[in-house]
Amino acid sequence: MRRARSGAAAKPRGQKRTGASRAPAAAASAPGAGRARTPAGQTGGGSRAATRQPSAKRRPQSSPRAPEAGPGEPPPEPPLPPPPPAAPSASELDLGEQRERWETFQKRQRLSFEGAAKLLLDTYEYQGLVKHTGGCHCGAVRFEVWASADLHIFDCNCSICKKKQNRHFIVPASRFKLLKGAESITTYTFNTHKAQHTFCKRCGVQSFYSPRSNPGGFGIAPHCLDEGTVRSVVVEEFNGSDWEKAMREHKTIKSLSKE
């Protein structure tokens, strides 16, 4: 009985030793033993891809070119242009012996460099002319125009001018400046559509327009000018009801919009 028990007890111990001794060998000889220890999701090709990711991230940094947009992506924005150079001041201009006089004039008149230049241009650019200002009735449209203080007015009797009493004087486009109200202006045309009859959307007043006789200039309504700049007015009747004949016979009206 003692031998049976000792034999039975020895057999299990021998089995455990046999299994324990074979496990390392089996683990070492198994082809997938090394991969069995890696966590899920990092086996096979995934582990190789993970090792390549750092090198892929370094490639754009080493490339001197900007990254190109992929399919379906907007193109990269172009670089911003350099800012425009600042306007020169009086100290940066070569005024010579007139520098002291210029700076004294600016201080006396309390003008900036730009304001002093504007005053000079307004005085001498259009010699013999004055700056008129005007606009519509509601004030939405305002303009300024350089013209003589003695105005030559055309009183046209064409179908539309007769209806709206369109008396006007003509100036080149370069002498006219719309100060405000571009969004408040609407235009009516008819027949040849060369004349652009512009008027205020709100009050309906036409203070200026582009006439058929001078499409490169503006016809200004003298009754829409502000008071104080008109010295005299001369009115000439123009037979717009027979427009082609009147234009052939008139000697100067075509040139009124030229510089």
Automatic annotation (TrEMBL):
The protein's UniProt keywords, in alphabetical order, are: Cell cycle, Cell division, Centromere, Chromosome, Cytoplasm, Cytoskeleton, Kinetochore, Metal-binding, Methylation, Mitosis, Nucleus, Phosphoprotein, Zinc
Job description of the protein: Required for distribution of pericentromeric heterochromatin in interphase nuclei and for centromere formation and organization, chromosome alignment and cytokinesis.
Instruction: Report the gene name.
Output: CENPV
Where in or outside the cell it occurs: the entry states: Chromosome, Centromere, Kinetochore; Cytoplasm, Cytoskeleton, Spindle; Nucleus
Organism source for this protein?
A: Sus scrofa
Region annotated Disordered sits at 1-96
Q: Where is it chiefly localized?
A: nucleus
Q: What is this protein called?
A: Centromere protein V
Kindly name one Pfam family recorded for this protein: GFA
